[in-house]
Amino acid sequence: MSENLIAQVQSAGVVGAGGAGFPTHVKLNAKADTVIINGAECEPLLRVDQQLMDRQAEKLLTALDLIVDHVGAEKGVVALKEHYHAAAESLKKALPAHPKLSVHLLGAFYPAGDEQVIVYEVTGRIVPEGGIPLAVGVVVTNVETALNVLDASQGKPVVEKYVTLTGAVRTPKTVKVPLGITVAEALALAGGPTVPDYKVVNGGPMMGKIVGVDSAVTKTTKGLIVVPAGHPLLVSLERPVTDSTRRAATACMQCSLCSEVCPRHMLGHRIEPHKLMRVAAYGSLCDPEQTPMNAYLCVGCRLCEYACVMGLQPWKLNNNMKNILAGKGIRNSLNNKPEHAAPFRDYKRYPVHKLIHQLGLAAYDVDAPMDETVPAFRSVTLPLRQGAGAPSEPVVSVGAAVSKGDLIAKIPEGKLGSSIHASITGTVTAIDGDSIVIQA
Ligand code: SF4
Ligand code: SF4
């Protein structure tokens, strides 16, 4: 294991380029026998990774070789959906120069990109409840993150981000933009919204969050989806949990369809959302195996809502139970390691095209061609926290002249976090507790 690579990745500020943004230098400080590049891009409408795997296949495999060697693995696998034809073709063409590497084609189901699901699909190993892939000797990394690791090894910090701009926008596209521009500025690159009244979902429609147009593009922004006001997706995301709980108490018929599709239940983990509905709605513990603690095994993929014929939201109730437990200082204590996945799991995988129709997003399931020309911006506002862990501490003052790539905030001593670099050349014009502003 090269200490040097960890230091380079840390100093370049690499975090998981989607999701929670876990600092990559911590993830790479490990020994594993297999490294998986997660190219599933399972969130509907997003188009970043599938195009990067096509356009930068050779660079991605070089990055994967670097990570494989670093963690002492025997092999590296790029796992992507079988219908990403161009990406699969480009990767297969580049493979002969990388003898330790291979490509694994996944079916078109959701959530193929769930870390634990992809580990099972590729290796047949089941990550224990509440565990991480490293528990079964696997490191999983996202496509863009791996490319950033290679850049870090060459001294290039993370200052830009690939983002798919889609939904109700004039010209859906995938762009490369400086960190710290606003959501509105990013959407303008796609011609702006086509509807007067809308909200923006940051991430995918399944696990993304509604954000304001003034919020910043960060290291974890992967997609910005303009959703017209009143769309069922917004109704689902914005429904208060009290309403969801009342509906659970009155309408849940305990059919268990939600549990039948739950990807973690299908891996043999002790989560059964239909039973947790009883716990959340009635406080019922009639099955002593299902207590509020089991909600910790929910990954929040939201699939249960779309399997439910009553349109109920087990995921939201699970989130609420997790928050209540965490608020009382109670942590997950479930850590079984199932021997087998659920019987017939392979027949219960949820087709992504069906999901897109159920989400009411079929009209937006279109190409979003990539443009890698980074546009110039006059100003950026860089949040001091752009991933998991503590906010970074500024190392510049107001009035300082900075060049693109300069370190402007570092990880606090002894804390988990990621450093931040100037994403444009200019002058620092403001620093507050949350962000640093740079004007060109
Ligand atoms: S699918 Fe819906 S109705 Fe059926 S058990 Fe789950 S939450 Fe209840
Ligand atoms: S959101 Fe629903 S389907 Fe997904 S892991 Fe949680 S309970 Fe299972």
Explain what you see.
This protein is of the alpha/beta class and 440 residues long. The protein has four domains: 3-153, Rossmann fold; 159-231 and 360-375, Ubiquitin-like (UB roll) (Roll), CATH 3.10.20.600; 241-349, Fumarate Reductase Iron-sulfur Protein, Chain B, domain 2; 376-440, OB fold (Dihydrolipoamide Acetyltransferase, E2P). It has helices at residues 3-12, 24-27, 48-55, 57-71, 85-94, 115-123, 143-153, 183-188, 232-238, 241-251, 257-261, 263-266, 273-282, 303-307, 314-327, 352-359, and strands at residues 34-39, 75-81, 101-106, 109-110, 138-142, 160-167, 173-178, 198-202, 209-211, 223-228, 350-351, 370-371, 379-383, 393-394, 401-402, 407-410, 420-421, 426-431, 435-439. Strand 6 and strand 7 form a beta hairpin. The radius of gyration is 22 Å and the shape is globular. The model has no long low-confidence stretch (mean pLDDT 96). The protein binds iron/sulfur cluster (SF4) (2 copies).
Strand order of the largest sheet: 9-8-10-6-7-12
The proportion of residues forming helix, as a percent range, comes to 25-40%
Overall 3D geometry? globular
The counted number of beta strands is 19
